[in-house]
Amino acid sequence: MDSPQRHKADRGSRARARHLGLTIGSFSPGPLNTITDVTGVRVGHLTRIEGDAVRTGATAIHPHPGNPYDERVPAGLAVANGYGKLMGATQLVELGEIETPILLTNTLAVPRAADAILDWTLAQLGNGSARSINPIVGETNDGTLNVIERRSLSVEEMRSALAAASGGPVEGGCVGAGTGTTAMGWKAGIGTSSRVLTSKAGTWTLGVLVQSNFPGSACIAGVPIGRLLADPDPPSSPGDEFTEGSIMIVVATDAPLSDRNLTRLARRTFAGLARTGASFSNGSGDYALAFSTAESVRRTRNRGAEIPTTDELANDQVSPLFEAAIEATEEAIVDSLFLATTMTGRDNTTIEALPLDRVLSILHDRAVLRGGSAT
Length: 375
Prior knowledge:
The chain contains eight helices and 16 strands. It is an alpha+beta fold. The chain has one domain (4-365): L-amino peptidase D-ALA esterase/amidase. Strands 3, 4, 9, 10, 11, 12, 13 and 14 form an eight-stranded mixed β-sheet that branches. The chain has a four-stranded mixed β-sheet with strand order 1-2-5-6. Helix 6 crosses helix 7 (319-338). It is globular and about 55 Å long. The model is unreliable at 1-11 and 235-242 (pLDDT under 50).
């Protein structure tokens, strides 16, 4: 089994977009430009690289440091194309909340990821007699590089991703649930970004994490990079749906939003996805989940009764958050491509990394680069 530290050492010249002078959008990022800029959010990866055909993993996202079964966070879900296996979706939509951490993994690993979440939740103080738990597990199909049918990930490995979660920097590229993923013909993986915005209603942070694995023709900062590089991924033909991919987009914010406005927020991320060149094809499951960490809108439990509060932003206060979600999604996807490295997997298939030197040259010629950043 490989580790995230090994991938970091192997990156060479790979870097995030802002480090290379590419600024996306108008809002400023948070200190780390990651989903963990939202206070309390933690992320952990488990990366599995074995032999010549296992290229997969899991990524865990904890909404806050406490027990989410006791302190549930309001959440919303948006689906652009429902070709996927998002476990827990119907209860999330019905109740507008999540009660467990989130795990992202590959398509055939969803049941074991759910088992890991059940183990973790039941082990939390006071949860041992819980009779109903709604684990949230998202997936994309990494079968181009990973022998997915081998179902190599164990429940124990899934639990290790949950246990590894921490605040601070979040590694991107070929790690965790993004180990074997591809996007628009290039090697992709995990990407993350954040935005900080101030309005009359307050100062809020919004962060996005993506598991990129979708079809299309790459577009970066409005420049048709895929076409200019000659797309490595021609339009799919009938029967190619299992090579088409998917994307999971997870949005966290400390803004006090209702589940209804979190659903609206999740929908806006698809504008960011579209800006990167996604084709939203038949075989691509395109999902976005948004939750609020604000304590004022958590649904705490007291003697079995849910006690929600009503301190939430009004409809006419959420437009800046919508724009921030679009920007952060677009940048997270770009970073998932910029950080990923060339990988060879099943059947000796090689997926090349986006050639950053050529991409930067094109962006420079189009006067898109604006100077580097420390985030």
